[in-house]
Amino acid sequence: MATVFKRQDKRNWYIDYFDHTGKRISRSSNTTDKAAATRIANKLEAEVALRVDGVIDVRAEDKAKLATLPIKIHLDAYRSARTSKSGSDHIEATITIIEKMGFNSLGEITADKVNNYTLALGTEGRALRTIAAHIQAIKGFTR
């Protein structure tokens, strides 16, 4: 059960509750009204119960959060994860391709946009092998 309390010298009410993993969370309700803080606490508990019961898919929720992060964070993570596994030329080429496509987040990478990009490469006169290499790089990055 969530606990609603006030900290010394603070205006807002605070909420303590346990998340779906059993970790204790303490956060401000951002309200000075105890009844509103209690409603917020009840809502948080209801959401935790939905996650525990499997109604809300936690993995899908995590993927959605990752999809909104800036692409630069993902590119840096890709670079650090792949450096020990493959040559740096391949890594830098993949990063250059993704940056050239102009995506701001992972959520923007769609099959249609990749298809349009590869069609544009074809109209520029690029070889089929080059286009295939770009597609392979994009697939490798999105995995």
Summarize this structure briefly.
This protein has six helices and three strands; from the N terminus they run βββαααααα. With 143 residues, the chain is mainly α. The protein folds into two domains: 3-56, no CATH class; 66-142, no CATH class.
Describe this protein with a few key phrases.
mainly alpha; elongated; 2 domains; 143 residues; 59% helix
Give an account of the 3D structure.
- The protein has 2 domains: about 5-55, no CATH class; about 65-140, no CATH class.
- It starts with a strand and ends with a helix.
- It has a 3-stranded antiparallel sheet, with helices on one face.
- Strand 2 (about 15-20) and strand 3 form a beta hairpin.
- The radius of gyration is 23 Å and the shape is elongated.
- Helix 4 packs across helix 6 and helix 5 packs antiparallel against helix 6 (about 130-140).
- With about 140 residues, the chain is mainly alpha-helical.
- Helix content is about 60%, strand content about 10%.
